[in-house]
Specification:
Helices cover 56% and strands 5% of the residues. With 163 residues, it is mainly alpha-helical. It has a two-stranded antiparallel sheet with strand order 1-2. Residues 58-88 are annotated as: Disordered. Residues 71-80 have a biased composition (Polar residues). InterPro entries: CIMIP4 (IPR029234).
Length: 163
């Protein structure tokens, strides 16, 4: 097989020769006509208006619709919810009303923030009822550690003075 034979094979598809068949004014490839039978192809291509309408729909469907470059957004309306709904636990809310809650807040942002320190270091701060309290043994151990550190620092200062 020569190189000119290869070129002819490729050009056969591009040229309107035996590859295409004329069916009701449309050029249909032989493989399509063979695959879907000639009677079905001729029936489908018989109504010219329907064929043109279908072609236009396909062209429109294949064109990617771009959104406009700038859209004016409507101002968002604040969503009002029932206060009892917000107090329900997440488990109950997800069991009864599926989906995310309307007013979603992060646990870390609501609990772990600067307000904790502001409240803790206020002058009228009352120790929390649920906070860990020291008993006599804890206080004795803490005083013992402070006493040992003080004793060591006194010994080090005496060493420095004698040297």
């Amino acid at each position: 097989m020569s190189s000119s034979d290869n070129c002819d094979a490729y050009r056969a598809i591009e040229l309107e020769g035996d590859y295409y068949t004329d069916v009701n004014g449309y050029q249909v490839p032989q493989n399509i006509r063979h695959r879907f039978r000639s009677t079905i192809t001729s029936e489908l291509l018989a109504d010219r208006d329907k064929v043109e309408r279908d072609k236009d729909e396909l062209l429109y469907a294949n064109v990617k619709q771009r959104p406009p470059a700038y859209q004016q957004r409507q101002p968002e309306q604040p969503k009002t919810t029932d206060p009892d709904y917000a107090t329900l636990s997440n488990d109950l809310r997800s069991a009864v009303c599926r989906g995310i809650p309307v007013q979603r807040r992060s646990h870390t942002k609501t609990v772990h923030n600067e307000d904790i320190f502001k409240e803790y270091f206020q002058d009228d701060h009352q120790p929390s009822v649920h906070r860990r309290r020291k008993d006599w043994l804890g206080r004795w151990t803490e005083a013992n550690i402070v006493r040992d550190r003080l004793y060591k620092s006194i010994l080090e200062s005496k060493k420095k003075m004698t040297e």
